[in-house]
C-alpha cells in the first residue's frame, strides 16, 4: 500500500464516524503531492497518519483545516520531522480494557499481567476501572468505559490483579507532564471523552505506578515473565502493537509467547496476526481481532468502543 493509499484508508476506515477533522485531513494528505514527498523521506514505520497528526498537534499546529495544516507542515517540517523521529504512536487508550475484560475475567484468578507495548501502562489496571455495556455497569472506579458489546459473555466480576508490568521500547512516565502531554496529543481532536478518561486513568496509575521495563518484546519478555508471582495466572497481552514490528520479529514473538506458562491475549488487526475461516467483520470500519492463546474470539474497534463476539 502506498503512503497515499494508507492515508485515504485511514480516513475512510478509521477516522470516519469518529473524527471528522482527521477524516478530512487524512484524505487531503492522500492527495497532497508536496506532503507525500516529505513523508517519503521518513522511515516506513514513521509515515503513519496518527504519528504525523499527533506531532503537529503537540507543536500547536492546526489539524482542523487541511489548507492550514498544509501550510504549517511545509513551513515547519524540520520541527515536525524531529518530533516524528523521536516519538511513536503509543496511544495508551484505556477504552481497550473494555474488550479485554471478558477474557481476563474468565481466566483462573488471580492474574499477573504483562502488557507488551505498554506505553505508560494505563491498560494494566482493568481491575480499577468501571465498565458500561449497554445498560449493564460493572465496577465503581473511574474512568467509566463504554463499550457496545454484541454476543459477548460479559463478566459478573472484575478480574483480580496481583501483579502488573509493562514492556516497551520507550516506556512513558505517568508522572511526567511531557509524556502525558504526548498521550493527549495522540487523542483525536473532537474526542473530549477520551481526554477525560485519560486524565482519570493517569490518576489511577500515578497513585500506584506499574513496573515498566524498557526492552524488546522478544529479547526481554522471558526475564520479565520470570518476575511474575508463581501463584498467579500469567497473562501476556497487547493491542495494536505488532503492526509496528517487522514480520520475522513478530513471528519470533508469537513462538516465544506460546511457550510461556499462562495465557496470551492479542488484540491486533487481522492482517497482522492472520487466521483462516474468520467471519466478516461488522461494517467497513477497521476492526481488530481479539484472540486468546491464538484462538479468535471477537471483532473489536480500535479504541474499545465496540466488540462483536463470535468465538
Question: How would you describe this structure to a colleague?
Answer:
This protein has 311 residues and is of the alpha/beta class. It has a nine-stranded mixed β-sheet with strand order 5-12-11-10-9-8-1-6-7. A three-stranded mixed β-sheet has the order 3-2-4, with no helix packed on it. It is built from eleven helices and twelve strands. The mean pLDDT is 95.
Describe the secondary structure blueprint for this structure.
Elements: H1 3-15, H2 20-30, H3 33-39, H4 49-58, H5 66-75, H6 77-86, H7 97-106, E1 111-116, E2 130-133, E3 136-138, E4 144-146, E5 148-150, E6 161-168, H8 177-185, H9 192-207, E7 211-214, H10 221-226, E8 233-239, H11 247-259, E9 263-269, E10 287-292, E11 295-301, E12 306-309
Parallel strand pairs: 1-6, 1-8, 2-4, 5-12, 6-7, 8-9
Antiparallel strand pairs: 2-3, 9-10, 10-11, 11-12
